[in-house]
Structure formats: C-alpha cells, structure tokens
From TrEMBL:
Domain 4Fe-4S ferredoxin-type: residue ranges: 3-31
Any GO MF annotation of the entry: 4 iron, 4 sulfur cluster binding
Keyword entries, A-Z: 4Fe-4S, Electron transport, Iron, Iron-sulfur, Metal-binding, Transport
Record protein name field: Ferredoxin
Top-level division of the source organism's lineage: Bacteria
Gene name, Swiss-Prot/TrEMBL: frx-5
Species name: Citrifermentans bemidjiense (strain ATCC BAA-1014 / DSM 16622 / JCM 12645 / Bem)
Function recorded in the entry: Ferredoxins are iron-sulfur proteins that transfer electrons in a wide variety of metabolic reactions.
Cofactor: [4Fe-4S] cluster
This protein's record includes keyword Iron: yes
Amino acid sequence: MAREPWVDQDVCISCGLCTDNVPEVFRFADNGKAECYDQTGASEEEIQNDAIDVCPVSCIHWR
Ligand code: SF4
C-alpha cells in the first residue's frame, strides 16, 4: 500500500501552499487546517516536492 501523507494540524498555519500546489491530494478541513483527502491523487514524488518540501512549517509527514 502506498504511503499516505499526514498533516499535523496542530502545526499547520493554513498558508495554502499544499492545497494550491497539489489540490488533488490536499484540501482545507472544516477547522481551517490542511488535510490529505486522497493520497492517490498525485505521485509520491509530486507530494514530496510540491507539498512536503515547501510547507513552511514542515508539518506534512509520511505515514
Ligand atoms: S503547506 Fe503546510 S502550513 Fe501550509 S497549508 Fe499546507 S500543511 Fe498547512
């Protein structure tokens, strides 16, 4: 099974980079913090490069 990105919402500052760059995978939850809703929406490489590596507070992790 593919790895799943997970957003530590206690740390997320709702900057919108991950939701803008990879909207097939990340969206804002009702609490205003980002969440992964479909880990199959993009390749692991795209998730790594366009979301995890650019998150300003490094709060997206693989699990
Ligand atoms: S890039 Fe990081 S801080 Fe910005 S919305 Fe996504 S998870 Fe939150």
